[in-house]
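INFO batch 0412 | record 1 of 1 | parsing
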Amino acid sequence: MSVSARLAPHQRVFAAFAIYSFALGNLFPRLPDIKRAMGIEEGALGLALIGISTGTLIALTLSAPIIARLGHRQALFVLLPLMSLCFAVAVHATGPLALYFLLIPAGLTMGATEVIVNVEADRVEAAMGRRIMNRAHAFWSFGFFAAGLFGAAMAQLGVQPALHMALVLPPTFLGVRVLLADFQPAPKRGTETADAGPAIARPTKGIMVLVGVSLSAMLLEGASIDWSAIYMRSVFDALPFLGGLAVATTALSQAITRYFSDRIVDRHAPDRVARVMQMAMALGVLVVFFAPSALVALLGFALIGAGTAAIFPLAMSAAAQRSDRSAALNVAALAQFSFVIFLLGPPLLGFVAEHAGLRWTFGLGLPLVAVSFALSGALGSKPSRA
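INFO prediction complete | emitting tokens
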């Protein structure tokens, strides 16, 4: 019996999340080396990284018919290795404009994969009758943690980014073949319809409040992914391994928190859970901003990772429970507007880093955490189990 055959359907979904994030996550520990090789500043690098956002937003909007035609199983078998290949090609860019255009195909594979794995998690969750979404995203963070460690090791050993990203291809391909060989799409929810919704879902005032709740978490998670390695290398002249370790630390603390957050939300009110996490985020931002050493900064990144872990899933649940219109439309509106912040905000922070310093890349998150804290009552004041 194959390894994949021994896995339950939800475990194969977890594996898909982990392989996806591993294929993606190896790029970010190498951004300091890519920036140095190109001889560019943070603003130019940030604009280049918007190539990922461009591709992802296009795929999130337009990929559904193509995915439906291919089927989830076949699409994953193509998309995950192709994502790894796209990043391996992109790091050969010699300038920021070329990097921007070469990252668009990688973003396209990311957006399509994002749709598939989240739909599968939702369907398996419905079939099982218990929540797995936060745990699924925990495995995304575990995969990112593994990528951060691998990237840190490659940077410390002086392996060139092009060779490093090429070395990501074999484990990605092997992971798909070993862990997803028996993957079968979960049955559709009874509430799913064949009618296509609007390409862009209009947000209501209530949804915009929930966007505000998730704003700080989405921005700080993205900033930690994009800029933590560069922050460590530039501010403290830290070893390459410590730069990659900052990415891995954020991902690990986020993964552990996500893994247990479903149980926590079952016992405590969502608004209280969110505010505790937002206080952890705020403390993490302060630690990173004032950190006197690289090791202290790692503690700050761990707090930011834990604080960002479950805010967005809580906002998604609150959107689905609103009664002003269909749950699907509210969820789509929140997801689209929040993903714009997550994908476009952190790269644009490169201009803040270039002109005000890398500490302010994270320091600007503090007033946003205060806004999210003030709006968190919209998440609900009753435990989810109730």
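INFO post-check: Residues 141 and 255 are 5 Å apart (CA to CA).
INFO record closed
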